[in-house]
Amino acid sequence: MCLIRKATPKDALGISIVNTYTWKTTYFGLMPDILIDSRIDALKSRVEKCKSDIKQNDNFIVAVVDDTVIGFCMYGPSRNEDYKASGEIYALYVLKGYQGENIGKRLFIAGKNELIDRGYSSIIINCLKGNPSLGFYEYMGGKIVGEQHDCANGQNLSEDILYFEI
Predict the structure, then answer these.
(1) Arithmetic mean of pLDDT, 79-108
(2) What's the rounded Cα separation, in Å, for the pair 27 and 22?
(3) pLDDT single digits (tens) 14-57
(4) How many domains are there within the chain?
(5) Which residue range is the domain that position 150 belongs to?
(6) What CATH number should be reported for the domain holding residue 30?
(7) Secondary structure (DSSP) of 3-69
(8) How many beta carbons lie within 10 A of that of residue 72, not counting itself?
(9) For the chain, counts of helices (H) and of strands (E)
(10) I need a surface site. Which of 25, 29, 61, 136 has the fewest CB within 10 A?
(11) Does the predicted model carry a pTM greater than 0.90?
């Protein structure tokens, strides 16, 4: 049985492993290998940053099976200047072997409810171009409203911006 709950600093390693693994399985071929591999190489420092984020921002929800993190949602205020009044789901990842079991949906709804509790009436999510999760976000009610272009480690990335009324 999968439990959805607020994250604690003890979940940071599990969150970081899920994040790194899902980048490897989801984004392979969609972004340069150097970006994916850099997450693997920086795992230890990413765990410490995650612990700090959980303590300071209280903005992670985890999906747990047998005391092991198998998915997570990270959320907060929008980082997009065009959607400053919106909340944002920064990350929503579920291990590949657990996808298709409504865990992503449960994490999305939990994140949405946290953003509602913080006073937001809309959400944005950035979805990497070619990400197979785009259909999931559209199913959850998101509408593509634009594109965002980022540069990470010298690599150009394009993302769709999805907007949700809540």
Answers:
(1) 97
(2) 8
(3) 999 999 999 999 988 888 888 888 888 999 999 999 999 999 99
(4) 1
(5) 3-165
(6) 3.40.630.30
(7) EEEE--GGGHHHHHHHHHHHHHHHSBTTB-HHHHHHHHHTHHHHHHHHHHHHHHH--EEEEEETTEE
(8) 26
(9) 5, 7
(10) 29
(11) yes
